[in-house]
Amino acid sequence: MLPLLIADSGGTKTDWCYVDASGSKHFFETESYHPIHWSTEFEQRIQHFWNENSQYKDAQVHLFCAGCLRLEKSDQLTQLFNNLGFSDVVVKSDLHAAALSLYGNQNGFCAILGTGSVFFEWKNEEVNSILGGKGHEEGDEGSGFFFGKLVFQAYQENKLSPEQRRIFEEKVDIKQIETSLQEKTSKTAISQISKQLFEYSSVFSEWHLRNIELFFDEVLNSQTSLNLQVVGGYFTVNSAMFIPYLAEKHIQIQNFTSRPIDSLVDYFLGINE
After folding, report:
1. Percentage of residues in the chain with pLDDT exceeding 90?
2. How far is CA 17 from the centre of its chain?
């Protein structure tokens, strides 16, 4: 079934891997294919990109894209790739990417805790019982975005400690965030706060733990014992803090990964052997 072109697309970027006929892997990155970015200009940009990289068009495409859980959206993206010259295209959501990378054809519970957040059950290779995933305007507790939102709000309300406030003012472009709020483009600026404060996770631990607590209170609404696997950079960089904290709440993290692309590639190579 080679060659393969496999992609995991979130809200800000897309990770790709082209596996050629000899089995060699070629990784690269592009802009996000999330439906919020779709426009005439977007289609022109990606048409130019794929015309410049036409050697990939012979591949069987497996594209996992945030915002494409609904069949209407996945069909639209499939048609877009057909129009670009790809003949064998399957589009599913980033939830499928997370679950396949963690569980393959086994069943279990997954969480995505990156820029955004969602919790779901993976059963019989399908996504079930979705909780959270409401988007940054309505929720996304447990995400890098929501951590930034919590800390920025605490800064505005003068609830940060003197040390936290000093670090926040040194590392975060406050004027940029205030401008983005006025222009209603604040998601990216606020999401960056968790990265800007990465070196000081222990200093802001109370806000990280509050963030993760809000996520599990929202999606579980109980202290149910749970075995869970997680995808997401926000969880990964804070895993040493989160794993013991969640264990106290009877939530056992069996496995986690920052991004699913490597395991996705291994999965598809395995089923094509």
Report:
1. 68
2. 17
The helix or strand, by DSSP H or E, that contains position 263, with its residue range, turns out to be: helix 261-271
Which residues, in sequence order, are bridge partners of residue 31?
Answer: 13
Locate 190 and state its tokens.
């606020």
Give the SS3 label for residue 99.
Answer: helix
3 has a pLDDT exceeding 90: yes
Q: How confident is the model at residue 170 (pLDDT cuts 50, 70, 90)?
A: very high
Cβ contact 50:84 at 8 Å: yes
CA distance 3 to 78: 18
* 11-49 burial: b if 16+ Cβ within 10 Å, else e: beebbbbbbbeeeeeeeeebebbbbebbeeebeeebeee
pLDDT at 201: 93
Residues whose CB is less than 8 angstroms from the CB of residue 213 and which lie 6 or more positions away in sequence, other chains included = none
